[in-house]
Design a protein that fits this description.
Distance between the termini: 23 Å
Protein name: Regulator
Strand order of the largest sheet: 2-1-3-4-5
Pfam family, one: Response_reg
Structural class: alpha/beta
InterPro entries: Bact_response_regulator (IPR050595), CheY-like_superfamily (IPR011006), Sig_transdc_resp-reg_receiver (IPR001789)
Organism: Azospirillum thiophilum
CATH topology: Rossmann fold
Keywords: Phosphoprotein
Number of domains: 1
Number of strands: 5
């Protein structure tokens, strides 16, 4: 399976754990993505103007300052004016999260996620017709 990506793909990553954020940024960069990575939603929203619409949003579920991955994805989508494909990475398996994610058309991946699995899921959500 050819898993190559175009070097012009753009990903937004939100995770309040700096080590995870750094690892995701490096991994996506090696896959040919431009990456906007931040520990909080406000930083992402402040850095989005002037950038292209992201190809994908990756977010942790539990974020700082009362944000959830769902609310973060909503905010980024609203700022972009587009239903950007999105994935939440979480250890949470609650039925409310799963129902909300389904309603918001957000894919849930349960931690830990192997890099090849993550890449396959990113490629799949990007390929889905909007």
């Amino acid at each position: 399976m050819d898993m190559s990506t175009k070097p012009d793909r753009f990903a937004v990553v939100i995770d309040d754990e700096s080590i995870i954020l750094a690892g995701m940024e490096i991994m996506l960069d090696t896959w040919g993505y431009q990456v906007l990575a931040a520990e909080d939603v406000e930083t992402v929203l402040g850095k989005l103007p002037g950038r292209p619409v992201p190809d994908v949003i990756l977010s942790d579920y539990r974020l700082r300052d009362g944000w959830s991955g769902i609310s973060a994805i909503r905010a980024v989508r609203e700022a972009c004016g587009s239903a950007v494909p999105a994935i939440i990475l979480t250890g949470d398996t609650g039925p409310e999260l799963i129902a909300t994610a389904k309603a918001e058309q957000v894919r849930i991946l349960h931690k830990p996620v192997q890099p090849n699995d993550l890449r396959r899921h990113i490629d799949a959500v990007i390929a889905q017709p909007g």
